[in-house]
Protein backbone atom coordinates (compact mmCIF):
# COMPACT_ATOMS: atom_id res chain seq x y z
CA UNK A 1 0.00 0.00 0.00
CA UNK A 2 1.20 3.49 -0.81
CA UNK A 3 -0.02 7.09 -0.69
CA UNK A 4 0.92 9.92 -3.05
CA UNK A 5 -0.17 13.54 -3.31
CA UNK A 6 0.42 15.51 -6.52
CA UNK A 7 1.03 19.17 -5.74
CA UNK A 8 0.53 22.33 -7.72
CA UNK A 9 3.73 24.30 -7.23
CA UNK A 10 7.43 24.21 -7.88
CA UNK A 11 7.73 26.49 -10.88
CA UNK A 12 10.17 25.36 -13.51
CA UNK A 13 13.35 24.57 -11.59
CA UNK A 14 14.56 21.53 -9.66
CA UNK A 15 15.39 23.73 -6.67
CA UNK A 16 11.81 25.01 -6.43
CA UNK A 17 10.43 21.49 -6.81
CA UNK A 18 12.53 20.46 -3.80
CA UNK A 19 11.43 23.52 -1.81
CA UNK A 20 7.80 22.91 -2.69
CA UNK A 21 7.91 19.33 -1.45
CA UNK A 22 9.77 20.38 1.69
CA UNK A 23 7.27 23.13 2.54
CA UNK A 24 4.29 20.81 2.23
CA UNK A 25 6.15 18.02 4.04
CA UNK A 26 6.75 20.29 7.04
CA UNK A 27 3.13 21.44 7.06
CA UNK A 28 1.90 17.85 6.97
CA UNK A 29 4.17 16.97 9.88
CA UNK A 30 2.77 19.97 11.79
CA UNK A 31 -0.71 18.69 10.93
CA UNK A 32 -0.13 15.44 12.82
CA UNK A 33 1.04 13.16 10.02
CA UNK A 34 4.64 12.62 11.07
CA UNK A 35 5.44 8.93 10.70
CA UNK A 36 2.80 8.40 8.01
CA UNK A 37 3.66 11.02 5.42
CA UNK A 38 2.62 10.39 1.82
CA UNK A 39 4.96 10.70 -1.11
CA UNK A 40 4.79 14.29 -2.33
CA UNK A 41 5.25 15.14 -6.01
CA UNK A 42 5.69 18.78 -7.04
CA UNK A 43 4.34 19.18 -10.56
CA UNK A 44 4.61 22.88 -11.41
CA UNK A 45 1.34 24.17 -12.87
CA UNK A 46 -2.16 22.97 -12.06
CA UNK A 47 -2.63 21.29 -15.46
CA UNK A 48 0.58 19.31 -15.01
CA UNK A 49 -0.52 18.24 -11.52
CA UNK A 50 -3.89 17.08 -12.86
CA UNK A 51 -2.29 15.13 -15.70
CA UNK A 52 0.21 13.42 -13.38
CA UNK A 53 -2.59 12.57 -10.98
CA UNK A 54 -4.67 10.99 -13.77
CA UNK A 55 -1.79 8.81 -14.94
CA UNK A 56 -1.00 7.56 -11.44
CA UNK A 57 -4.66 7.05 -10.54
CA UNK A 58 -5.05 4.60 -13.40
CA UNK A 59 -1.86 2.67 -12.60
CA UNK A 60 -2.22 2.32 -8.83
CA UNK A 61 -3.68 -0.68 -7.06
CA UNK A 62 -7.03 -0.66 -5.30
CA UNK A 63 -5.41 -0.31 -1.87
CA UNK A 64 -3.21 2.65 -2.86
CA UNK A 65 -4.23 6.25 -2.26
CA UNK A 66 -3.54 8.95 -4.86
CA UNK A 67 -4.59 12.57 -4.32
CA UNK A 68 -4.38 15.99 -5.95
CA UNK A 69 -3.75 19.29 -4.11
CA UNK A 70 -4.17 22.47 -6.15
CA UNK A 71 -5.46 26.04 -5.91
CA UNK A 72 -9.17 26.42 -6.43
CA UNK A 73 -8.44 29.74 -8.22
CA UNK A 74 -12.00 30.89 -7.41
CA UNK A 75 -14.32 30.57 -4.38
CA UNK A 76 -15.90 27.12 -4.08
CA UNK A 77 -19.65 26.58 -3.77
CA UNK A 78 -19.42 23.19 -2.03
CA UNK A 79 -16.13 22.13 -0.49
CA UNK A 80 -17.27 18.48 -0.40
CA UNK A 81 -17.55 18.23 -4.20
CA UNK A 82 -14.25 19.58 -5.58
CA UNK A 83 -14.62 17.67 -8.84
CA UNK A 84 -17.76 19.70 -9.60
CA UNK A 85 -15.79 22.90 -9.06
CA UNK A 86 -12.98 21.75 -11.35
CA UNK A 87 -15.47 20.68 -14.02
CA UNK A 88 -17.23 24.05 -13.94
CA UNK A 89 -14.09 26.17 -13.79
CA UNK A 90 -11.51 24.19 -15.77
CA UNK A 91 -13.62 21.77 -17.80
CA UNK A 92 -11.88 18.81 -16.15
CA UNK A 93 -13.61 15.45 -16.08
CA UNK A 94 -12.63 13.35 -13.11
CA UNK A 95 -10.92 10.07 -14.00
CA UNK A 96 -13.10 6.98 -13.93
CA UNK A 97 -13.22 5.53 -10.43
CA UNK A 98 -11.87 8.64 -8.72
CA UNK A 99 -13.72 10.20 -5.79
CA UNK A 100 -14.01 13.61 -4.16
CA UNK A 101 -11.81 12.34 -1.33
CA UNK A 102 -8.90 12.37 -3.77
CA UNK A 103 -9.04 16.11 -4.46
CA UNK A 104 -8.03 18.95 -2.14
CA UNK A 105 -8.38 22.62 -3.00
CA UNK A 106 -6.39 25.47 -1.53
CA UNK A 107 -9.24 27.95 -1.53
CA UNK A 108 -8.66 30.17 -3.26
CA UNK A 109 -4.86 29.84 -3.37
CA UNK A 110 -1.87 28.85 -1.25
CA UNK A 111 -1.48 32.46 -0.15
CA UNK A 112 -4.88 32.19 1.56
CA UNK A 113 -3.32 29.60 3.85
CA UNK A 114 -0.31 31.83 4.44
CA UNK A 115 -2.15 35.04 5.36
CA UNK A 116 -4.47 33.16 7.73
CA UNK A 117 -1.74 32.37 10.27
CA UNK A 118 -0.90 35.85 11.57
CA UNK A 119 1.33 34.56 14.35
CA UNK A 120 3.49 32.60 11.93
CA UNK A 121 3.64 35.60 9.61
CA UNK A 122 4.75 37.89 12.41
CA UNK A 123 7.42 35.46 13.58
CA UNK A 124 8.71 35.00 10.04
CA UNK A 125 8.68 38.61 8.83
CA UNK A 126 9.35 40.53 12.01
CA UNK A 127 8.38 44.01 13.15
CA UNK A 128 8.13 45.54 9.69
CA UNK A 129 5.21 43.31 8.72
CA UNK A 130 2.12 45.45 8.05
CA UNK A 131 -0.65 43.40 9.62
CA UNK A 132 -3.17 46.14 8.88
CA UNK A 133 -2.73 45.46 5.16
CA UNK A 134 -4.23 42.00 5.64
CA UNK A 135 -7.98 41.29 5.57
CA UNK A 136 -10.02 40.27 8.65
CA UNK A 137 -10.07 36.57 9.43
CA UNK A 138 -13.66 36.13 8.24
CA UNK A 139 -14.82 34.42 5.06
CA UNK A 140 -11.20 33.90 4.05
CA UNK A 141 -12.06 31.32 1.40
CA UNK A 142 -14.40 33.76 -0.36
CA UNK A 143 -11.59 36.24 -1.08
CA UNK A 144 -10.32 36.45 -4.64
CA UNK A 145 -6.84 35.07 -5.15
CA UNK A 146 -5.43 38.22 -6.76
CA UNK A 147 -6.60 40.30 -3.80
CA UNK A 148 -5.07 37.85 -1.33
CA UNK A 149 -1.76 37.80 -3.18
CA UNK A 150 -1.66 41.59 -3.45
CA UNK A 151 -2.46 42.02 0.24
CA UNK A 152 0.32 39.64 1.22
CA UNK A 153 2.77 41.50 -1.00
CA UNK A 154 1.69 44.85 0.47
CA UNK A 155 1.95 43.63 4.05
CA UNK A 156 5.57 42.49 3.55
CA UNK A 157 6.79 45.26 1.25
CA UNK A 158 9.02 46.84 3.93
CA UNK A 159 10.50 43.52 5.04
CA UNK A 160 13.95 42.49 3.90
CA UNK A 161 12.53 39.04 3.13
CA UNK A 162 9.36 40.36 1.50
CA UNK A 163 6.98 37.79 0.08
CA UNK A 164 7.57 36.48 -3.42
CA UNK A 165 6.27 33.29 -4.98
CA UNK A 166 8.69 30.39 -5.01
CA UNK A 167 11.47 29.90 -2.49
CA UNK A 168 10.05 32.27 0.13
CA UNK A 169 6.46 31.12 -0.24
CA UNK A 170 7.37 27.50 0.50
CA UNK A 171 9.58 28.56 3.41
CA UNK A 172 6.69 30.24 5.23
CA UNK A 173 4.30 27.42 4.25
CA UNK A 174 6.32 25.01 6.36
CA UNK A 175 5.95 27.24 9.43
CA UNK A 176 2.15 27.47 9.46
CA UNK A 177 0.13 26.05 12.35
CA UNK A 178 -2.46 23.51 11.26
CA UNK A 179 -4.89 24.22 14.10
CA UNK A 180 -5.04 27.90 13.10
CA UNK A 181 -5.72 27.04 9.47
CA UNK A 182 -8.37 24.50 10.40
CA UNK A 183 -10.17 27.08 12.56
CA UNK A 184 -10.56 29.61 9.75
CA UNK A 185 -10.44 27.56 6.53
CA UNK A 186 -13.11 24.87 5.98
CA UNK A 187 -11.25 23.42 2.99
CA UNK A 188 -8.11 22.95 5.08
CA UNK A 189 -10.17 21.30 7.80
CA UNK A 190 -11.51 18.92 5.14
CA UNK A 191 -7.97 18.26 3.89
CA UNK A 192 -6.75 17.38 7.36
CA UNK A 193 -9.77 15.24 8.19
CA UNK A 194 -9.63 13.13 5.03
CA UNK A 195 -5.88 12.62 5.25
CA UNK A 196 -6.38 11.49 8.82
CA UNK A 197 -8.63 8.75 7.48
CA UNK A 198 -6.50 7.82 4.48
CA UNK A 199 -2.98 7.94 5.92
CA UNK A 200 -3.37 5.09 8.31
CA UNK A 201 -0.36 4.10 10.35
CA UNK A 202 -0.33 0.64 8.76
CA UNK A 203 0.50 2.09 5.34
Describe the structure.
With 203 residues, the protein is an alpha/beta fold. It folds into two domains: 3-109 and 177-198, no CATH class; 112-168, no CATH class. Helices cover 47% and strands 10% of the residues. It has helices at 14-33, 46-59, 82-90, 110-116, 118-125, 145-155, 167-173, 178-184, 186-198; strands at 3-7, 39-42, 65-71, 103-106. Helix 3 (82-90) links the parallel strand 3 and strand 4 (103-106). The longest helix is centred in the N-terminal third of the chain and has 20 residues, at 14-33. It is globular and about 50 Å long. The N and C termini lie close together (6 Å). 34% of the residues are buried. The model has no long low-confidence stretch (mean pLDDT 94).
Write the layout of secondary structure elements.
Blueprint: E1 3-7, H1 14-33, E2 39-42, H2 46-59, E3 65-71, H3 82-90, E4 103-106, H4 110-116, H5 118-125, H6 145-155, H7 167-173, H8 178-184, H9 186-198
Parallel strand pairs: 1-2, 1-3, 3-4
Helix pairs in contact: 1-7, 4-6, 8-9
Radius of gyration: 16 Å
Q: What is the total tally of β strands?
A: 4
Protein structure class: alpha/beta
- Note the overall shape: globular
Chain oligomer state: single chain
Give the helices and strands as they follow along the chain.
EHEHEHEHHHHHH
How many domains in all? Answer: 2
For the terminal residues, how far apart are their CA atoms? 6 Å
Unreliable residue stretches: none
Helix content: 40-55%
* Strand line-up of the largest beta sheet: 2-1-3-4
Quick check: average pLDDT? 94
Number of helices: 9
Largest sheet: 4 strands, parallel
Strand content: 5-15%
Amino acid sequence: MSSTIYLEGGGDSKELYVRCREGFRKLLKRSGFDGRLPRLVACGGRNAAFNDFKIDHVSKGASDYVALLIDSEEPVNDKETPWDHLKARDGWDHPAGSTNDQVFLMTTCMETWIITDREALSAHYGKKLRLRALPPLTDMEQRLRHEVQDQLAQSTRDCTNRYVKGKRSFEILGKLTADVLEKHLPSFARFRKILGQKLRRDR
